Amino acid sequence: MVDGRSDTIGECVDIEFARSGGFAGLVVHRYLPAVELDDDEVALWLSGDGRLSGTCHPEPDRFVYELVFHTPDGPHAVVMPEQALDDRTRPLIERLTELAGATDPV
User: Which helix (H) or strand (E) holds 74?
Assistant: First the structure.
């Protein structure tokens, strides 16, 4: 069970990926079907650790990432500003950025 949700999420999750902000202010929005996630990634992102908190607001010229995980339990949205990424969350963002065809580095 992940944060009160069933553990029937599986290894593939459909993800809506949006990246906004940055120096140019361009928005990238892609639907990424069947993205492979390991159990640790699912647990991290759906646990609430990746949610935008009141202590971490978007900053000028920085990216903001919005992910919607479409799971059997329904959609789960996570918003995270670039400066809040850490060693646990950055790998998935980098992978999704590449899959979405966004060429700017994270």
Answer: strand 74-81
Q: In what order do the strands lie in the sheet with 63-71?
A: 28-36, 12-21, 63-71, 74-81
Residue 79, judged by CB atoms within 10 A of its CB (0-12, 13-18, 19+), counts as: middle
Tens digit of each residue's pLDDT (9 = 90 or more) over 44-95: 777 764 454 444 666 778 899 998 888 888 888 888 888 888 888 888 889 8
Beta bridge partners of 89: none
Q: Are 31 and 100 in contact (CB under 8 A)?
A: no
To the question of pTM greater than 0.85 for the whole model, the response is no
